[in-house]
Amino acid sequence: MSQILSPMRYWHALKREWLIYHLGDPSYRFMFEPPPENEWVSLDCETTGLNVRSDEIISIGAVRIVGNRIMTSERLELLVRPDRGVSAESVRIHRLRQQDVAQGLPIEEAMKQLLHFIGSRPLVGYYLEFDVAMLNRAIWPILGQGLPQPKIEVSGLYYDYKFRKLQAYEQQGNVNIDLRFATLMSDLGLPLREAHDALNDAVMAGLAFIKLRQLRGDD
């Protein structure tokens, strides 16, 4: 007897098949397989600036999460060689100089390594939208589409957690919740590593994700 899908599940199944059909390189079909149970990938990118159309990725940090553990032995840390130079302003933020990234990977090779590291696992990050936009620009020539995995925004989880703790009258109107990363980490009782290092930022976002899942009772 065939299984009848709900309209939403049918839509997701249809969308999945459409994306697979239009996949630029069929060897990446593995990204559409069911992800390993209770596994995610937390990631972060350092870039030459904040313009998703013109700036470039210069480093990528990613780490796998399995259950409630950050698998630091299963991490990816890449330097990427930009086509253009690294400005003094960006060096002050991430401390990566032109000579540091000159021997980095070409962007296409870095993307291929990242895609194989992620697999079909959902993505976790802090203000992940920016990182995904930067990655999708580099991934599009390979896949003919952006990253298909579900994306989980840590600041969104934190906002929901803080909002639910408010009294009913406090939830009315505009609710101001401090979403700065240092505030979030301190409030959750988590250690801060040196910021603007891609791997450190990925690990910290992963820790926050695990803690918020525990607070929500998801584990």
Number of strands: 5
C-alpha geometry? globular
The CATH architecture category equals: 2-Layer Sandwich
Main sheet?
5 strands, mixed
Domain tally: 1
Cα distance spanning the termini: 34 Å
CATH topology: Nucleotidyltransferase, domain 5
Spatial strand arrangement across the major sheet: 3-2-1-4-5
State the oligomer.
single chain
Q: Provide the CATH superfamily.
A: Ribonuclease H-like superfamily/Ribonuclease H
The level 1 CATH classification is Alpha Beta
- Beta-strand level of the residues, as a percent range? 15-25%
Quickly give the structural class. alpha/beta
Q: Provide a count of the helices.
A: 8
In sequence order, what are the helices and strands, one letter per element?
HEEEHHHEHEHHH
Q: Pick out the low-confidence regions.
A: none
Proportion of helical residues? 40-55%
Averaging pLDDT over every residue, what do you get?
Answer: 91
CA gyration radius, whole angstroms: 19 Å
Structural account:
There is one protein chain. By secondary structure, the chain is of the alpha/beta class. It has one domain: Nucleotidyltransferase, domain 5 (2-Layer Sandwich), CATH 3.30.420.10. The protein is 42% helix and 16% strand. The chain has eight helices and five strands. The chain has a five-stranded mixed beta sheet with strand order 3-2-1-4-5, sandwiched between helices. The longest helix has 19 residues. The chain is globular and about 55 Å long. The two termini are 34 Å apart. The mean pLDDT is 91.
